[in-house]
Amino acid sequence: MKNSPRKRTRDTEDRITNLPDGIINHILSLLPTKDSILTSAISTKWKSIWASLSTLEVSEWDFYPRGGAWYNDEKRAEAYCKFLTFVYQVLVGGDMPYLKKVAIKGSAVHPSHIESWINAAIDRNIRELDVSFKDSYVDPPHEFPQSLFSCGSLVVLRLIGLGIVINFPTESTCFPNLKVLQVESVLYKDNDSARNLFSGCPILEDLTIVREEWDDLETLTIASRSLKSLSMEVILEKQEDIVQTVVIDCPALESLDMVDTVSEDFEVKDLSSIIKAKLYLLNTNSSCTWCHGHYHECLFKLFTKMSSIKSLSLSTSTILEFSVSWREEFGAEEWDTVPNCLVSHLKTIKIIDVRWEDKLETFKYFLMNSKVLEKMAIQTYLKQEFTMMRVAEEFEDVPRGSKTCQLEIC
What we know:
Layout: H1 5-17, H2 21-29, H3 33-38, H4 44-51, E1 55-59, H5 73-92, E2 101-106, H6 111-123, E3 128-133, E4 142-143, E5 156-161, E6 164-166, E7 180-184, E8 187-188, H7 191-200, E9 206-211, E10 219-223, E11 229-234, E12 245-249, E13 255-260, E14 265-270, E15 276-281, H8 289-305, E16 311-315, H9 316-330, H10 340-344, E17 348-354, H11 361-369, E18 375-380, H12 385-395, E19 406-409
Parallel strand pairs: 1-2, 2-3, 3-5, 4-6, 5-7, 6-8, 7-9, 9-11, 10-12, 11-13, 12-14, 13-15, 15-16, 16-17, 17-18, 18-19
Helix pairs in contact: 5-6, 8-9
């Protein structure tokens, strides 16, 4: 006799529940935390298993209704309250005692809640903390709890938005085991707080800085003897009568990714270990003669200090600014002096957003003087066919410093 539907259902449930704890744990780890917790209704065994998970990943939007209900203010307020209650219950209440990673994301939460969650995460000795609330703000803004900076368990820390001020006034060690740090759209008490934060992490290897809103910094100093990768994006609105300055002193730095259309003063102290760089730099202060001259001088020093660079990606604006700085340094027609990186290290170069009207002399200079170059890629703006044809014609008879170099135009 065939099994009844009820018996087949019961057998299936038994087979799932009787799986080894390790397999059930893996299944739950693939689900959003909110859905994992719902499995606690199956049995006592499932409740103990989800509570043993090491990762808490929760988003404010997980609690919002789907479809048109999103626009209902009452429904949104209800979902927001559920979100807050959930985080407090699981993180602060201790329902998941074995946490190693906490990731909480949303639109806007009062900084007092964020402070409570960060303190709770610190008490758990977690290894990875990711908190993102880009629209959170209160006047006056709160300060990060000082206990955060001395957290010895953190290896990865990402702070995005939050509406909380970083105040780290002393030159002392912080985050003794931190290797990856991302700060985006955060506020700093002053220049010293930012400098002390970045220089105080003794084994920091990967740093990402995004400055999208005014953060009260005039000088951003990044000084680290351990840092290997630096990604920096500065897209602030230009403030009148303020010269934005960037200072980089990272002797172990191997990778640099920089987008900056605001800073007018660069001080680069040591880039002797750099291997790969991606630069989008542009001086937008056209009204200041001193700024233009000083900017080109800084840009020239930046290039010459990348003596070991092997892979270089440049925006058209960057390479044209470089052309001006090079000519100002050596004279309008003097191109005999070649940076050491072109002679013995640079193997790949990519130039992006090339337009029809752009002058190509500097592009040709790289192709003619790079002795070990393996590939030069020129990416046209919007990949326009007529621009590609024009560039191809311009480069048709240009001699190459490296016989093995491949030219790619797209």
